[in-house]
Specification:
One of its GO terms (cellular component) is cytoplasm. Keywords: Chaperone, Hydrolase, Nucleotide-binding. Zinc chaperone that directly transfers zinc cofactor to target proteins, thereby activating them. Zinc is transferred from the CXCC motif in the GTPase domain to the zinc binding site in target proteins in a process requiring GTP hydrolysis. Belongs to the SIMIBI class G3E GTPase family. ZNG1 subfamily. The chain is α/β, with parallel strands linked by helices and about 300 residues long. It has nine helices and twelve strands. The protein has a seven-stranded parallel β-sheet, sandwiched between helices. A hairpin with a 2-residue loop joins strand 10 and strand 11. The longest helix is centred in the middle third of the chain and has 17 residues. The chain is globular and about 55 Å long. The two termini are about 30 Å apart.
Length: about 300
């Protein structure tokens, strides 16, 4: 299982700058691979990011969800086999929607940590009516109002209200149940694509906790809280735990043994999205949940 982030946003919103800053500030000692999907014959973003990340693969012009779907899945497999990354970042083109990428990543054994949508606050009025931009916002659970240094407070408030309204109206839903894919979102206001550590703080929580359970030492993040469960729970009890989480909990990861189910369940809750699609058939340790709290 590889944790993954999808970086989306309209043309010129600051996706590549965000990736550069994240590499410098949050992933300097991690094996992070990046897949870049660009439009045009010359891939500029990929060349820039190769100076910051250990492994960068550029996909040719075309949409990941259709014309180059096979190339995307091949790239993921190649990265896993040759590089064994600890984290995967996928930067979609400015004209793409993130949902098909989410499906492909999940089918290939990746856990979606978050879908981050960059919004250009200075130029949002120029593209806010574009369907692609609306679906990018509605398909994300981390909304980033970028370039806030270029607008006044009144404009920033207008953009924020508009983005929240679009998220509510274009919220991604399950086609069969009509239930929202994301229950909530986290909104950040920033410049130069800089995000706080809390956005990425839960990425390695499960791996670190497993090391701890195996007797190895590691440093604890002061924003983490660990809950141990002595007895197996049923799935409805898990949902009840999720529904009753305090508002400052933005991530929850762990391993649970369920009643009447032979395999331990990997639990991954990120910014309103619950993923329980992976199991650990041979896990013999304790059931536990790691809560990641906001630094705000």
């Amino acid at each position: 299982m590889i944790p993954a982030f999808i970086i989306t946003g309209y043309l010129g919103s600051g996706k590549t700058t965000l990736l550069l800053n994240a590499a410098r500030e949050h992933f300097s000692e991690k094996r992070v691979a990046v897949i870049v999907n660009e439009l045009g014959e010359v891939g500029v973003d990929g060349k820039i990011l190769k100076n910051a990340y250990s492994e960068v693969l550029e996909l040719p012009e075309g949409c990941i969800c259709c014309t180059i779907h096979a190339e995307f899945e091949k790239a993921i497999r190649e990265l896993r086999e040759k590089y064994e990354p600890e984290l995967l970042m996928v930067e979609t083109s400015g004209s793409a929607e993130p949902f098909p990428v989410m499906i492909s990543l999940q089918n290939l054994g990746c856990i979606i940590e978050g879908v981050i949508c960059l919004i250009d606050t200075k130029n949002f009025h120029l593209y806010s009516q574009e369907d692609t931009a609306k679906h990018q916002i509605g398909s994300s659970n981390v909304l980033v109002l970028n370039k806030t240094d270029l607008v006044d407070e009144s404009t920033l408030k207008q953009v924020e209200d508009s983005v929240v309204d679009i998220w509510n109206r274009y919220l991604l839903r399950n086609l069969f149940t009509n239930e929202p894919v994301f229950r909530s979102f986290k909104l950040y206001k920033t410049s130069f694509g800089k995000l706080p550590a809390e956005v990425f703080s839960g990425v390695f929580a499960l791996q670190e906790k497993l090391y701890h359970l195996n007797g190895e030492t590691h440093s604890h993040n002061h924003a983490q809280q660990v809950i141990y469960l002595d007895e197996p729970v049923d799935y409805n009890e898990l949902l009840d735990i999720i529904n009753k989480l305090p508002p400052d909990v933005i991530r929850l990861k762990g391993i649970l043994k369920l009643k009447d189910f032979p395999e331990a369940l990997v639990v991954n809750y990120s910014f309103g999205n619950l993923d329980t699609s992976y199991t650990l058939p041979h896990y013999e340790g304790k059931s536990f949940l790691v809560l990641i709290r906001s630094f705000n």
